[in-house]
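Run log // design_07
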């Protein structure tokens, strides 16, 4: 069992920055890879970024590459998503996910948080 708790979502202006966090607890083997997904109103959930606990890899969606940075703090058992140059189209609920192998599909992850809302005003 893995528990994930997101925080940090808020309203920001376009061009601004924000960092969202996800506290991770539970079985390490089930959370070898941590990821962020997002879901905008009336849209399907989409992959944003993923990182392995061992630091061997990270992945980014093309839409956020160069603007977002995912990181893992082993001491705090927390995964972060730093978002720069935010655009109105980044507005969504952001979800933290954990899985054994990871990937860009939501089906690759067995554990999910409740989400944190990010709104970017134009």
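design_07 sequence
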């Amino acid at each position: 069992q893995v528990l994930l708790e997101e925080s940090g979502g808020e309203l920001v202006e376009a061009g601004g920055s924000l960092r969202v966090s996800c506290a991770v607890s539970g079985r390490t083997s089930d959370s070898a890879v941590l990821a962020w997904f997002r879901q905008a109103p009336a849209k399907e959930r989409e992959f944003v970024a993923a990182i392995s606990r061992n630091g061997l890899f990270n992945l980014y969606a093309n839409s956020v590459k160069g603007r977002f940075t995912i990181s893992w703090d082993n001491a705090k058992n927390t995964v972060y998503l730093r978002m720069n140059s935010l655009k109105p189209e980044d507005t969504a609920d952001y979800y933290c996910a954990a899985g054994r192998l990871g990937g860009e599909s939501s089906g690759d992850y067995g554990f999910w948080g409740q989400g944190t809302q990010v709104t970017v005003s134009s």
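The radius of gyration is 13 Å.
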